[in-house]
Amino acid sequence: MTGPEPVSGPFFCGLTSEPILFNLFVSQTSVHIANIGIKNDSVERGKTMAEFLSLHDAVARYVEDGATVAMEGFTHLIPFAAGHEIIRQGKRDLTLIRMTPDLIYDQLIGAGCVKKLIFSWGGNPGVGSLHRLRDAVEKSYPHKVEILEHSHAAMACAYEAGAAGLPLAVLRGYVGSDLPKVNDQIKFIECPFTGERLAAVPSIRPDVSVVHAQRADRKGNVLVEGIIGVQKEAVLAAKHSIVTVEEVVDDLGATPNACVIPGWAISAIAVAEKGAYPSYAHGYYPRHNRFYKEWDMIARDRDAFNDWIKQNVLEAGGES
Amino acid sequence: MSNYTSAEMMTVTAARALQNGTTCFVGIGLPSEAANLARLTHAPDVVLIYESGTLQTKPDVLPLSIGDGELCETALTTVSVPEMFRYWLQGGKIDVGFLGTAQIDRYCNLNTTLIGDYTEPKVRLPGGGGAPEIATNAGEIFITLKHSKRTFVDQVDFVTTLGFGRDGKGRDGVPNIGKGPTRVITDLCVMTPDPETKELVVTSLHPGVTREQVQEATGWEIRFADQLETTPEPSGKELEILRELKERTDRHHAGD
After folding, report:
1. What is the pLDDT of residues B2-14, one digit of tens each?
2. CA–CA separation, A179 vs A289, rounded Å?
3. Does residue A6 register a pLDDT over 60?
4. Contact (Cβ atoms closer than 8 angstroms) between residue B199 and residue B22
5. In CATH, which of 3.40.30.20, 3.40.570.10, 3.40.50.1220, 3.40.1080.10 is domain B6-251?
6. How close A8 gets to chain B, by Cα (Å)?
7. What's the pTM?
């Protein structure tokens, strides 16, 4: 024999037995999920692929007023097109989660969509402040926004815990920081094995996560390349997910260890060409650093901001 | 060599603090400028790591943001953000965390959260980002920032990131914690924490800078070391490489 023996006999599960095994798997998984207190509707079981929708329809279906929404992308692949669609549809009272609110949440906050913000670093990277965020926090304009702030490490762990179906994340963090004094979602627990004092934060379980990626194949499998941030964790942690992509292709061209999110783990795919602009999509277009600098002037002034939103978002149409 | 700015003096001095082969978790802005200057001069094998997940990166231009494409394209590999914080930082793989800050006090506590009261801030700053855990999970911390009464304050308004606590004892008895800040580099001088009290002490004045200038720019009565040194001037080579780096960077970020 030069190769491995063909798998046969009792070890081989032929086509006919697959559905039974599949059912068994689902049933065990459901029991497990019920045990840790996650609603069964948190994952849409039995789906075979993501639904291809227009961006308008995806946002209309999955982003409800009052929802908890995570729009992720760590400087890279920020889902701006989806953010603009949320503004156009006039969504209100959102709880927004994002490690770095960036310009996208500055815009959503300034446009009055946001009730609460959960974040870990709220600046314009390399430029300065997010002036709409500051105006909301300092002067309650356009209205008061409640904030809950973490460190990056805690939020990254909280997304990971959300994806892992756990109620909390544990980290060696917040030592000596005042953040636990102003955020009641930061607690400390004792390691049952070593006695070490460790920080604990609740896992992140958004109603809907929205991320942008380079491309999807025709079955809705998504490839994320470059700085992958917490894209995968955000999608897997959420009840529903929208992934906007630059394009849909026949073959993802993914290498074996690439960051691929299977279509059956995603609710909706929407094509949004240049959907991460003015952030960037690795391999497609670079970060528009000059716009990030220009945003500082636009966002400093309420009227300049409102004009910008009117011209570039509200009247810019978007797709139907 | 005497034709240089105080900002260049600061960057060159901060760069010299990094040894070749060190693994350094780099903050954006001044720390990133210094760390890359080190890599382009005396420390070609310094390992630069940014919180966006880019590991062992060698950018040709300085990144504007912590996640510029340049960082990923020139990295050995790029990992997810949870992996970066959990395996590489919390896992103890980082020798030096290099941070900037908006406010610092005599015990090196850093404030990047806000000025004023938390519920009604006068000025809202970006927040903690990676710093709270970089400061405690990296082996030691270098801090670089411009020296002024606005930044060097008697008491920070908020301890975003632990230096040595309000009393200098914030790390005492805490297991699995790094040494904390070991040097602070400004455009006027170099400071290190007193080995016992952890209070910052000026150990080296930059050429031409007086004690009075440092005191004038510091919000508390700053101590000076008995053996006060003069920081070595930048070399012509360091200045040339720094200026080229900044020119490349400005050209790059001015474009579309």
Report:
1. 699 999 999 999 9
2. 31
3. no
4. no
5. 3.40.1080.10
6. 39
7. 0.91
